[in-house]
Amino acid sequence: MQAGLELGLTPIWSLTNIMVTNGRPSVWGDALLGLVLARPDCEDVIETFEGEGEQLTAICEIHRRGRQPIIRKFSVSDAKRAGLHGRNVHNAYPSRMLQMRARSWACRDAFADALRGLSVIEELRDIEPRTAATEREKPAIVLPDEVKPTVEEPLKPLTELVEAQLL
After folding, report:
1. What is the DSSP string of 60-72?
2. At 49, is the secondary structure helix, strand, or coil?
3. Which 3 state secondary structure label does DSSP give 20?
4. Using one digit for the tens of pLDDT, what is the confidence trace for 60-81?
5. What pLDDT, in 10s, does the model give residues 37-61?
6. What 8-state DSSP symbol labels residue 125?
7. Plot region of 83 (φ>0 → left; ψ -120 to 50 → alpha; else → beta)
8. Residue 120: strand pairing partners
9. CA-only gyration radius of the chain, Å
10. What is the rounded CA–CA span in Å between residue 107 and residue 45?
């Protein structure tokens, strides 16, 4: 909820739109667009498609007052190069996934100050989560002979050791 509050979302909308994905707080692509459109310096966000089939490309153009428009594209060939094409949701909704990539790149580039590095769920879901490193066999701790207890000399109680240090 704190992440949402810092972005200007109310608690209920923070719970609805923010999810920790691969260890990072992130928002759905529609919430990202809403955050950008709510900015007073956002003049327009234009999303279009070019081409068809294997040539399909999603384009997102963001106009921010006083700046050059930011245009970002994401195509089927980009999805293939990234190993996304035909996987999971990309298989079921390829144009929507292309749109979310173009949108997230354009929004984050045009409004980096407002979004503060915020990640997009549709993008983070495609990253393979890191697996924990396997525990290596821990080496046994070897004590020097002078600190090893011997049968002839049992360990002294802590009180005796403290008293010996005080004398």
Report:
1. EEEEETTSPPEEE
2. strand
3. strand
4. 999 999 999 999 999 999 999 9
5. 999 999 999 999 999 999 999 999 9
6. T
7. left
8. 27
9. 28
10. 9
